[in-house]
Predict the structure of DUF3667 domain-containing protein.
Amino acid sequence: MDQDLQQCQNCDYQLKADFEFCPNCGQKVNEKLTLKVLFYNTVSNYFSVDARFLKSFLPLVFKPGFLPTKFIEGKRSRYLHPAQLYLFISVVFFFILSLSTNSQPEKINQELLRTKSSEKASVLQDSIEAKQLDSVDRAEAKAFLKNNKWLGSVPEQKIDSILADPNVNKNDISFGFDELKLDSLIAANASDKEIFKAMEMNDDAGWLKRKFYGQILKFYKSRDGGSILKVIYDKIPIALFFLLPLFALLLKLFYSKKGNYTHHLVFSFYYFSFLFLIFSIIFGINLIWNVSGWLDFLLLFSAFVYFLIALKRFYHQGWFVSFFKANVISFLFLVFILPATATILFVYAFLFY
C-alpha cells in the first residue's frame, strides 16, 4: 500500500493519510473507541442528537409550520427528520410521565381496598338496620290493614304473603349483583360456574362475555385497579401510533387539494412533537412542585394557538379559514377520535390486565 494512502476501517476505502473522515462512508479515520465515543455514537445513531437537532428544536418551538414546510420543499438534510424528532421528544415525554405516575397504581389500589372495606361495613350496618326496621314496618303495615277493614277484606294469610315478598324494599347493589352472596361463595371456594351464576351470567354466554365477567370477578376479588392503569400507561405509545395517522387523515379531509397524505403526515409528526414537548413541560413542572391550574391551561391553550399558526403557514390560507378549520379539526379529534381511542384502550386494559 502507498505510504501516502491508508485504509478506512469501516468500508476498506483507500484514502489519503491526512484525511480525518472517509469520503466514501463518512466514518472518522482511526478513531479510538472510548466511553465518550461509545456514548456519543449510541445517542447520535438512535436519536440524532447533533447540529440538526439544535437547528430543528428552536424552529419547532418558535416557528409553527416552518419545519414541515422546509421538509416538503426538500431541505431534509439541514433539519432533523420528523419521525426522528418525534421519537426523541416522545421518549423524553414518556420518561417524565413514568416519573410522574409511578406511584399512582399503588395509591389507586390502596384507595380501592379502603373503599371496599368501608363499603362492606356500610352494607353490613345497612343490613342490620334494615332487618330491625323491617320487622317494625311490617308489623305496622299488618296492624293498619287489620284495623281498616273498610279498605277491603284481605285475609290475614294474604297479608302475610304480601309483606313477606322478598322483592319488597330490595336493596340496590352497586356491582349489579349481591355482593354478600358472592363473598360467601368465594369464601366457600365455590366453582367459577356457581359464582358466574350468582353474578347473573347466562349459561350460553360467548367467549367475550365470559372473559368480561371473569375480569369483573378478578377485579372484585383484588380491587387491582393499579394494574389496569399500568396497562393503559404501557399501551399509550401504541395508541398514539394510531392517533397520529388519524390526525393526518383529518388534515387530508380538510386540505384535500394541499398535497398528498404524506404531506399531512409530515405536518402531524412535527405538531405531535410540539404536543409532547408541551406535555413534558406540564408533567415536569408538576413533578417538581404543584402549580395552579392556570399555568397548565395556558400551556394547553398555547398548543391550539400553535396549531392555528402552523395551519396558516403550512397550507397558505387566510386567518379566518385557518381559525375555522383549526376549531373543527380540534373538535372532531378531541370529541370523537380521542375518546374512542381511550375507550378501546381502557377496554383492552381491563380485559388483559
